Hints:
Elements: H1 3-17, H2 24-40, H3 45-59, H4 62-65, H5 70-86, E1 101-106, H6 113-126, E2 131-136, H7 143-154, E3 157-158, H8 167-181, E4 185-190, H9 198-211, E5 215-221, H10 226-239, E6 243-247, H11 256-265, E7 269-273, E8 281-283, H12 286-293, H13 299-309, H14 312-323, H15 329-341, H16 345-350, H17 370-381, H18 385-389, H19 396-406, H20 410-442
Parallel strand pairs: 1-4, 1-5, 2-3, 2-4, 5-6, 6-7
Antiparallel strand pairs: 7-8
Helix pairs in contact: 1-2, 2-3, 3-5, 5-12, 6-7, 8-9, 10-11, 15-17, 17-19, 19-20
Amino acid sequence: MFDNLSEKLQAVFKKLKGHGKLNEGDIKAALREVRLALLEGDVHFKVVRDFIDSIHSRAIGQEVMASLTPAQQVIKIVHQELASLIGEGEPKIHLSGQSPIPVMLVGLHGCGKTTTAAKLAVYFKGKRRFPYLVPADVYRPAAIQQLQLLAEESGIEFYESNPAESPLEICQRARQRAMAGGYDIMLVDTAGRLHIDEPLMEELQELKGQLHPKEILLVADAMTGQDAVNIAKAFNDVLDIDGVILTKMEGDARGGAALSIKGVTGKPIKFIGTGEKLDALEVFHPDRMASRILGMGDILSVIEKAQASFDEKEAEELERKLIKEAFSLEDFRDQIRRIKKMGSIENILNLIPGPGIGRLKGLKGIQFQEQELVKIEAIINSMTPKERRNHGILNGSRRLRIAKGSGTTVQDVNRLLKQYTHMLKVMRKVRKGGTRELYKMLRI
Length: 444
């Protein structure tokens, strides 16, 4: 996400850094390029105008002109204003009150609303809450069945509605079931339409009046750009929404919707969908997103993903094995599985500041593609426990057997073993030389 905008902004900042001191002309020229980059990124023109004006008034002040590092000061100002533009602090989900707490999801057809309802349930379940999914879309064919399948896949409880029930009746009975079952959050997947119309809004207003939801979250497709912004404004005008969930962010290279919604509606983005899997939903942190856009990375998100995927005792055991040089192919496979739990490798690498892992010279021998991880796991699974613990015994005939068993080639098996032994060498050097040696090897 934001690839195009990020590249252009970083190019502007690179030019600024080439100047020892900055004058007003330098800043105005840079801001013209920033303005053009934002407009090309499909950011709302009024949002762009206010954003540039705000930066200009600060950038020509003494904090920049009198600074020893004026370019860095400009970048700092842009970062602060960008974070302010897309939100103020971490948006909160308000879930206080008597259980079950109703949360309404609204939006048009095709925005990913039903899948997002299941993703949100998985998110709350991970927070040790007890969500209950309610299908209130009785118009779209198979909408109820879709939500039921997603609920079963994720292990979330689901209200099995009667085809003759109206959306209002479904919500009323679902609330009684949720209360009796001890569920504390009721996620209501409401009906969408191909476009905003009066009957849709009247039905949603009726549901709002009946449920008194703590949160009304609009689900919008980020790839529709300014249409998503206009839809958000229309829903907000009628329903007074509490926030937005932007879906399909992984496919939106421009990011105009994400940068415009808060400025146009005054309502924050609370979550973003970053993939098709049910765990591909992230809390939207404005300051972290601003850092990503400006190429500063998002190490906090990487740490959070790692903490959610790695067990502390397992980490201690891994450290012990590394110290004793007892890191086997079996351990290698286990680490791959944990990494896969963190989500897309490409997304993780995009959170790391700087040029990205792909350019680090010391790790050129290791392939980080998603399909490679699947292949590596299949190869290791085809080995015997003895072979996994001692890769030195893998002669030609064993490698041929492993290749056939994993549906790969002998070349694939050889490549994995080369990567594995290369990694062991890296670990050995780090163990002997510490972080200074690692820094020297990677030559970041």
